[in-house]
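Working notes for the structural subgroup meeting. M.R. asked for a predicted model of this chain before we commit to crystallization trials. I am recording the input and output together here so anyone reviewing the notebook later can reproduce the run.

Input as submitted:
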Amino acid sequence: MARVLQLLAWLALLLPAAALAQVPQLPQVPQVPQLPQVPQAPQALQRISTALTAAGGGSSFPEAAATAGVVLPDEWARTRRGFTGSVWYRVVIEPVLPVDGNELLALYIEQVCSNLEVYLNGQLLHSAGRMTAPVTNNCNHPQLVALPAALFKPEGNRIDIKVAGQARLSSGSRQRAGGLSALWIGPQAELAARHARQTALQVAAPQAISATLLLTGSFMFVLGFVHRRDSHLAYFGALCLGWALINVRLWVRDTPLGHSEMEFIVCSMLGFIAWAAVQFLLRYGGVRSELVDRALPVQCALLAMTLLLAGPDRLSTVVNLWYAVLALEVTAAAVWHLWRRGATGDGRLMALLLGATFTVLLVELAVQWAGMPPLAAHVAELVVPVILVLTGLRLVRQHGHSLHQAEQGQVVLEQRVREATAEIERNFRQMSELKVEQVTERERKRIAADLHDDLGAKLLTIVHTSESERISTLAREALEEMRLSVRGLTGRPVRLADALGDWRAEVIGRLGQAGIEGSWDAPEDLPQTLSARAYVQTTRILREATSNVIKHSSASSCSITAAITDGDFQLIVQDNGDGISSEIDARLDRGHGLAGMKSRAKQLQGQCLVESGPGYGTVIRLTVPLDRATTG
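Returned structure, recorded in token form:
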């Protein structure tokens, strides 16, 4: 797309040379009226560049009116600046050679503005439309008129052309003023090919490009209106629509409005086009000015008002002044846009396109000053809408790329939102759990305090006041169990070294009271800590193991070994008793002894293994992960 735009822009930059090469040198108008004649070979293609003229209406050449010689093309903007009406042109073909009956002669008129009628020896051959107001507009439509051989006379054959046109002062453009181009007479087949080429260049191609521009502008305007952040697209669409509407006369030659009304509408559109062009350049450059937003609509209204006040007779003068003002505005906006875009790739392309557009406009102005528009002028008229269409396609492509990036960004944003939502929900759950833990911790402390203050005091009283040794022993055991439960409820961690000291004192004491020799092997000054829950569960497992040794093993000795291995705390209780028989094993299961020990170890993410056999003693291996025992 960028290469196509660049090639088109370079083509536009070469148009000035083409325009200068094609502008014809206008000969001097003859001082004495002469009756122009065509050379004696009508079968060959001949160009007629002089004619007799006379102003007047009617259906025939005004013989009594004053006549004058004129050089064709005759441009009323130069020869009849203030004239509006009908002018007759007469060309005499003298003499006429015999024409082959199989070959038809024709008259080709490259341009006439606004309309014409063609007569051969007083007989009407061709009428291009309405000759009275509102006159049919054929300024861009070349004319091809067949010349029947039956109407030719041996000598003095007259071709009369009645042209209805408008004054330059009442036309916004020199090209819409009245006028007649040079005439061509020759074989119809040859002239028909030339007529087809010129019609394609002046009518078909502009119509196709205008239709494309109309569709492009409508799409761009809707696209920019829907996506308000890309308002430059809407203004570019309005620019395309305005430019396409100016060429509406290519489609509708017979309008219900007169020349003055149509010129007012077309010239008023210039303010709208300048408005859209300036806003597009500013918005595309990333700037929005409140002053410009208010001033441009006011300028459009002011332009229309001045055209109304000036009236049809001074329309050309007022429009030329507005041409200069609007051109300066658009030029200033273009220069600012290029300065804003800098030396980026897109900025260089826009500079080339804007330069080409202004070059085309300069060519158009130069051609208007030089006379009837040559081929370069028609090419110049095509270049600007083509540049607009291709620029629109590039803008649509950029917009699509931006939308794709925005969609990708939206997908990423939605993913991040989902992740953030999940994180918030996770944090909320953690906060809820923490709150529950805090409430639970407070309740535990309250229950522990109640147990310690109420139940503990009563059990202690029973221990010291009971006369029954059994009751005192049970009360003392209950008091120890209560103290252990209270420690678990308080949640305070316990140093492993302190826990080992407490366990050693309790286990060795119980074994000694039962007459069993006890041995304790554990490292000293261990820095690790146990959570309150791990301390309580380990204490109960150790008590249960000691109780089993005392009650069921018939052992004479028992060893307890504590160690730290691979980050795990290990406690081994081994006796030399009878081992666990099937009878004892059944009794232990009913009392939930071994099963309870294993369950408590599992709660600490550890394990409790029992190795025993009749006559071989029993080994209980407790393994507790310290990382979980510390935080569990």
